[in-house]
Specification:
Blueprint (H helix, E strand, L loop, with lengths): L3 E5 L4 H12 L5 E8 L2 E12 L4 E2 L6 E2 L3 H15 L26 H5 L20 H9 L17 H14 L3 H8 L10 H5 L5 E2 L16 H12 L4 H6 L9 H6 L7 E2 L1 H12 L6 H7 L4 E4 L6 E4 L21 E4 L5 E5 L4 E7 L1 E2 L8 H13 L1
Parallel strand pairs: 6-13
Antiparallel strand pairs: 1-3, 2-3, 2-12, 3-4, 5-7, 8-9, 10-11, 11-12
Helix pairs in contact: 1-13, 2-5, 4-5
Length: 384
Amino acid sequence: MGFVDGHCDPAFQGVREVFEEQFAAGRQVGAAVAVVVGGRPVVDLWGGTADGRTGRLWERDTRCVAFSCTKAVTATAALLLAERGEVDLTAPVTDWWPEFGGQGKDAVTGEHLLSHQTGLPAFARPVTPEEATDPAAMAALLAGQTPEWTPGDGHGYHALTYGWLAGEIVRRNAGVTVGEFVRREFAPDLWIGAPPEVIAQAARLGGRPAPAGGADPVARPKTDDLLHRLAEAYMDPVSRMNRALHNPRTSFNNPLVLAGGWPAAGMLAAPRDLAAFYDRLVRGEILRPDTLADATRTRVDGPDRTLLVNTAFGLGYMRPNVNFRVPGEGRRTAFGHSGAGGSLGLGDPAAGLAFAFIPNLMGDAIGGDLRSFELLKAAYAALG
């Protein structure tokens, strides 16, 4: 059809067909998808326009904002430090972050930070993009806040604050930012805080608006009443959902944000490199298999105090649920993270599968985005 370039193993031709159909139907502007099976890249496809203003095409090495796919990478950095014995995630955070204590937070653990149980889903005051370039300042703001619910008593999506909470595990125990640690230790091509030359070549986001910092609030709500409540919460400036998703309020085309290294949502990546990260995770090359198995064990599953729908998380990784859609073949063993606009990163140890998809046409935050699910379904189908 002329929309798509790259490599696709003949056994995975179904993935290419779905990808091409999405372009032909006008559901993609620019995007890339990658699949790795047992360490072997079987799909590496890209196509369309990276920048609608200039007409610049999406090329093999084009990177794009992956939004909350970032969270899984940040969590992996924290888990690696715990595996090495440099931090105890089951102990109180105050053991290594004394300033975090008080205001009902003394019993918060690292596991609470990694599983959206801390009760700090939003900043208590407006934060500027300039302020958000300083992780120490962001962490200090959160340390001074009172939780919106008792930590550990339920969970709620920490769309942007997650990065500066979980990221503090890394910053305080490794002495470097999340982005520096990730590139040094296990993923040199994933940019959480990118230099000017990487930002200049990144895809430009456009199309339908989506939340600034997180996964789509809901996919295919079951009732009109739920859809109405979600739409109201998304638009209400004082709702927990709105405050969590939109503070700091900015565009993710803003170079300041991409350079700032927001550890919850600011990663620039090519799907090839994100899929390679999940492949290495699945094959035990980043974390030990027992570490990964424990981290992907579901810690919370049920009504989300921020997003209003059911969500499920291990330690930093989403488990299959309404905003992390996985075909039936992977529902028991797949893990990963979705992101605003339709992006997705996923690993499945049982299938030996790693998958990543990143578009620059933003998906519909309320209605859901099926593009990644369609591609992932085709990938599972190809496994036989």
